[in-house]
Amino acid sequence: MLPCSCVLCGAHGRDALCPPCHAQFFGAGAGHPVRCPVCAEPLPGAAAPLPCGRCLAERPAYDATIVAASYAMPLDRLVLELKFGGALVHARLFAELLAQAMRDAPGVERPALLCPVPLGPGRLAERGFNQALEIARPLGKLLGIAVAPRLTERVQETVAQSALRGADRRANVAHAFAVPDRAQVAGRHIGIVDDVMSSGQTLQKLAAVLKRHGAARVTNLVFARTPPHQ
Protein backbone atom coordinates (compact mmCIF):
# COMPACT_ATOMS: atom_id res chain seq x y z
CA MET A 1 0.00 0.00 0.00
CA LEU A 2 3.01 2.31 0.42
CA PRO A 3 4.34 4.27 -2.57
CA CYS A 4 7.36 2.68 -4.21
CA SER A 5 10.40 4.35 -5.70
CA CYS A 6 11.25 4.43 -9.38
CA VAL A 7 14.00 1.88 -10.01
CA LEU A 8 15.89 4.36 -12.20
CA CYS A 9 15.56 7.82 -10.62
CA GLY A 10 14.20 7.04 -7.15
CA ALA A 11 11.12 9.25 -7.47
CA HIS A 12 8.17 8.15 -5.35
CA GLY A 13 5.14 6.83 -7.18
CA ARG A 14 2.78 3.93 -7.69
CA ASP A 15 4.85 2.05 -10.28
CA ALA A 16 8.33 0.58 -10.49
CA LEU A 17 9.07 2.99 -13.33
CA CYS A 18 7.90 6.59 -12.97
CA PRO A 19 6.09 8.25 -15.92
CA PRO A 20 9.04 10.50 -16.90
CA CYS A 21 11.51 7.57 -16.93
CA HIS A 22 9.02 5.40 -18.80
CA ALA A 23 8.58 8.13 -21.40
CA GLN A 24 12.33 8.72 -21.67
CA PHE A 25 13.33 5.11 -22.19
CA PHE A 26 10.21 3.38 -23.52
CA GLY A 27 7.92 6.11 -24.86
CA ALA A 28 7.19 6.99 -28.48
CA GLY A 29 9.90 9.63 -28.47
CA ALA A 30 12.60 7.46 -26.91
CA GLY A 31 14.35 6.89 -30.24
CA HIS A 32 14.05 3.10 -30.39
CA PRO A 33 16.04 1.64 -33.29
CA VAL A 34 14.33 -0.19 -36.12
CA ARG A 35 15.26 -3.83 -35.58
CA CYS A 36 15.53 -6.96 -37.66
CA PRO A 37 12.31 -8.88 -36.91
CA VAL A 38 14.25 -12.15 -36.78
CA CYS A 39 17.30 -11.43 -34.59
CA ALA A 40 16.43 -7.92 -33.27
CA GLU A 41 19.73 -6.41 -34.37
CA PRO A 42 19.37 -2.64 -35.01
CA LEU A 43 19.03 -1.69 -38.68
CA PRO A 44 20.83 1.67 -39.12
CA GLY A 45 18.91 4.00 -41.38
CA ALA A 46 16.09 1.52 -42.00
CA ALA A 47 12.54 2.78 -42.23
CA ALA A 48 10.85 -0.60 -41.87
CA PRO A 49 11.68 -3.75 -39.88
CA LEU A 50 13.06 -6.08 -42.57
CA PRO A 51 15.30 -9.14 -42.02
CA CYS A 52 18.96 -8.17 -41.83
CA GLY A 53 21.55 -9.47 -44.28
CA ARG A 54 22.89 -12.01 -41.81
CA CYS A 55 19.46 -13.54 -41.21
CA LEU A 56 18.77 -13.62 -44.97
CA ALA A 57 22.08 -15.35 -45.64
CA GLU A 58 21.80 -17.87 -42.81
CA ARG A 59 18.36 -18.12 -41.27
CA PRO A 60 18.48 -18.82 -37.51
CA ALA A 61 16.53 -21.69 -35.94
CA TYR A 62 14.23 -19.15 -34.28
CA ASP A 63 11.69 -17.27 -36.38
CA ALA A 64 11.35 -13.93 -34.58
CA THR A 65 12.71 -11.93 -31.66
CA ILE A 66 10.89 -9.37 -29.53
CA VAL A 67 12.93 -7.12 -27.22
CA ALA A 68 11.82 -4.36 -24.87
CA ALA A 69 15.07 -2.39 -24.59
CA SER A 70 18.69 -2.05 -25.59
CA TYR A 71 21.23 -3.38 -23.09
CA ALA A 72 22.72 0.01 -22.24
CA MET A 73 22.93 2.42 -19.32
CA PRO A 74 20.98 2.74 -17.11
CA LEU A 75 18.80 -0.27 -17.96
CA ASP A 76 21.75 -2.67 -17.91
CA ARG A 77 22.03 -2.00 -14.17
CA LEU A 78 18.54 -3.41 -13.62
CA VAL A 79 19.47 -6.62 -15.44
CA LEU A 80 22.57 -7.06 -13.27
CA GLU A 81 20.59 -6.33 -10.11
CA LEU A 82 18.11 -9.05 -11.02
CA LYS A 83 20.59 -11.68 -12.13
CA PHE A 84 23.36 -11.17 -9.57
CA GLY A 85 21.69 -9.14 -6.82
CA GLY A 86 18.45 -11.09 -6.44
CA ALA A 87 16.28 -8.03 -7.17
CA LEU A 88 13.33 -10.20 -8.22
CA VAL A 89 11.02 -7.18 -8.26
CA HIS A 90 12.68 -6.19 -11.56
CA ALA A 91 11.39 -9.39 -13.19
CA ARG A 92 7.82 -8.10 -12.99
CA LEU A 93 8.85 -4.79 -14.59
CA PHE A 94 10.72 -6.62 -17.38
CA ALA A 95 7.61 -8.75 -18.00
CA GLU A 96 5.37 -5.68 -18.21
CA LEU A 97 7.70 -3.97 -20.69
CA LEU A 98 8.06 -7.15 -22.75
CA ALA A 99 4.31 -7.65 -22.85
CA GLN A 100 3.91 -4.10 -24.16
CA ALA A 101 6.63 -4.69 -26.76
CA MET A 102 4.81 -7.84 -27.84
CA ARG A 103 1.53 -5.95 -28.21
CA ASP A 104 3.23 -3.16 -30.16
CA ALA A 105 5.05 -5.46 -32.60
CA PRO A 106 3.22 -5.43 -35.95
CA GLY A 107 1.91 -8.76 -37.20
CA VAL A 108 3.63 -10.90 -34.56
CA GLU A 109 1.86 -14.14 -33.70
CA ARG A 110 1.65 -14.90 -29.99
CA PRO A 111 3.27 -18.17 -28.86
CA ALA A 112 1.11 -20.98 -27.51
CA LEU A 113 3.57 -21.75 -24.70
CA LEU A 114 6.38 -19.89 -22.92
CA CYS A 115 9.67 -21.66 -22.25
CA PRO A 116 12.17 -19.90 -19.96
CA VAL A 117 15.81 -20.59 -20.81
CA PRO A 118 16.76 -23.29 -18.27
CA LEU A 119 19.68 -23.10 -15.88
CA GLY A 120 21.85 -26.08 -15.01
CA PRO A 121 21.48 -27.57 -11.51
CA GLY A 122 24.77 -26.09 -10.33
CA ARG A 123 24.02 -22.55 -11.53
CA LEU A 124 20.48 -22.75 -10.15
CA ALA A 125 21.73 -23.87 -6.74
CA GLU A 126 24.32 -21.09 -6.70
CA ARG A 127 21.91 -18.34 -7.73
CA GLY A 128 18.80 -19.65 -5.99
CA PHE A 129 16.44 -18.75 -8.84
CA ASN A 130 16.19 -18.70 -12.62
CA GLN A 131 15.81 -15.09 -13.80
CA ALA A 132 14.24 -16.25 -17.08
CA LEU A 133 11.53 -18.12 -15.20
CA GLU A 134 10.93 -15.14 -12.90
CA ILE A 135 10.26 -13.02 -16.00
CA ALA A 136 8.23 -15.72 -17.76
CA ARG A 137 5.71 -16.19 -14.94
CA PRO A 138 4.30 -12.63 -14.89
CA LEU A 139 4.73 -12.37 -18.68
CA GLY A 140 2.54 -15.43 -19.16
CA LYS A 141 -0.17 -13.93 -16.97
CA LEU A 142 -0.05 -10.60 -18.78
CA LEU A 143 -0.30 -12.20 -22.22
CA GLY A 144 -2.57 -15.09 -21.27
CA ILE A 145 0.01 -17.71 -22.29
CA ALA A 146 0.83 -20.83 -20.28
CA VAL A 147 4.38 -21.14 -18.93
CA ALA A 148 6.18 -24.52 -19.08
CA PRO A 149 9.18 -24.29 -16.72
CA ARG A 150 10.34 -27.83 -17.54
CA LEU A 151 9.66 -27.87 -21.27
CA THR A 152 13.42 -27.95 -21.83
CA GLU A 153 16.32 -28.77 -19.56
CA ARG A 154 20.01 -27.91 -19.51
CA VAL A 155 21.80 -31.23 -19.59
CA GLN A 156 25.30 -29.75 -19.64
CA GLU A 157 26.66 -27.12 -17.27
CA THR A 158 28.15 -24.26 -19.27
CA VAL A 159 30.39 -21.29 -18.66
CA ALA A 160 28.57 -17.95 -18.58
CA GLN A 161 28.24 -16.78 -22.18
CA SER A 162 29.24 -13.25 -21.17
CA ALA A 163 32.76 -14.57 -20.44
CA LEU A 164 33.20 -15.95 -23.98
CA ARG A 165 33.41 -14.65 -27.54
CA GLY A 166 32.76 -15.92 -31.07
CA ALA A 167 33.25 -19.63 -31.70
CA ASP A 168 33.71 -20.27 -27.98
CA ARG A 169 30.13 -19.14 -27.36
CA ARG A 170 28.83 -21.55 -30.02
CA ALA A 171 30.82 -24.46 -28.62
CA ASN A 172 29.80 -23.66 -25.06
CA VAL A 173 26.09 -24.34 -25.70
CA ALA A 174 26.42 -26.82 -28.58
CA HIS A 175 24.95 -29.76 -26.65
CA ALA A 176 23.56 -28.00 -23.60
CA PHE A 177 19.80 -28.50 -24.03
CA ALA A 178 17.26 -31.32 -24.27
CA VAL A 179 13.49 -31.70 -24.55
CA PRO A 180 12.16 -34.35 -22.13
CA ASP A 181 8.68 -34.63 -23.70
CA ARG A 182 8.34 -34.18 -27.46
CA ALA A 183 4.52 -34.25 -27.21
CA GLN A 184 4.49 -30.85 -25.47
CA VAL A 185 6.46 -29.27 -28.31
CA ALA A 186 5.35 -30.91 -31.56
CA GLY A 187 3.32 -28.62 -33.81
CA ARG A 188 3.30 -25.70 -31.37
CA HIS A 189 4.57 -22.13 -31.39
CA ILE A 190 7.06 -21.83 -28.51
CA GLY A 191 8.17 -18.55 -26.97
CA ILE A 192 11.66 -18.62 -25.40
CA VAL A 193 11.99 -16.14 -22.52
CA ASP A 194 15.30 -14.69 -21.33
CA ASP A 195 16.71 -11.52 -19.78
CA VAL A 196 19.43 -10.61 -22.29
CA MET A 197 20.31 -11.56 -25.87
CA SER A 198 23.95 -11.03 -26.83
CA SER A 199 25.37 -13.17 -29.63
CA GLY A 200 22.14 -15.17 -29.70
CA GLN A 201 23.92 -18.51 -29.48
CA THR A 202 22.02 -19.73 -26.41
CA LEU A 203 18.68 -18.89 -28.04
CA GLN A 204 19.85 -20.38 -31.34
CA LYS A 205 20.78 -23.74 -29.81
CA LEU A 206 17.63 -23.91 -27.70
CA ALA A 207 15.45 -23.04 -30.70
CA ALA A 208 17.24 -25.68 -32.79
CA VAL A 209 16.48 -28.34 -30.17
CA LEU A 210 12.83 -27.29 -30.07
CA LYS A 211 12.60 -27.40 -33.88
CA ARG A 212 14.16 -30.88 -33.96
CA HIS A 213 11.41 -31.99 -31.59
CA GLY A 214 8.71 -30.67 -33.88
CA ALA A 215 8.10 -27.06 -32.83
CA ALA A 216 6.23 -25.27 -35.62
CA ARG A 217 7.62 -21.84 -34.73
CA VAL A 218 9.95 -20.30 -32.14
CA THR A 219 9.86 -16.67 -31.00
CA ASN A 220 12.38 -15.15 -28.58
CA LEU A 221 10.98 -12.82 -25.92
CA VAL A 222 13.97 -11.05 -24.39
CA PHE A 223 14.05 -7.96 -22.20
CA ALA A 224 17.28 -6.43 -23.51
CA ARG A 225 19.43 -6.76 -26.64
CA THR A 226 23.13 -5.93 -26.51
CA PRO A 227 24.69 -3.64 -29.12
CA PRO A 228 26.01 -5.41 -32.25
CA HIS A 229 29.66 -5.19 -31.22
CA GLN A 230 29.15 -7.20 -28.05
UniProtKB/TrEMBL annotation:
Entry-linked Gene3D superfamilies: 3.40.50.2020
Range of residues in the leader sequence: none
Record-annotated Phosphoribosyltransferase domain positions: 127-224
Alphabetical list of Pfam families matching this protein: Pribosyltran
SUPFAM superfamilies: PRTase-like
Record InterPro entries: ComF/GntX_DNA_util-trans (IPR051910), PRTase-like (IPR029057), PRTase_dom (IPR000836)
Family: Belongs to the ComF/GntX family.
Protein name: Amidophosphoribosyltransferase
Organism: Pseudoduganella buxea
Taxonomy of the source species: Bacteria, Pseudomonadati, Pseudomonadota, Betaproteobacteria, Burkholderiales
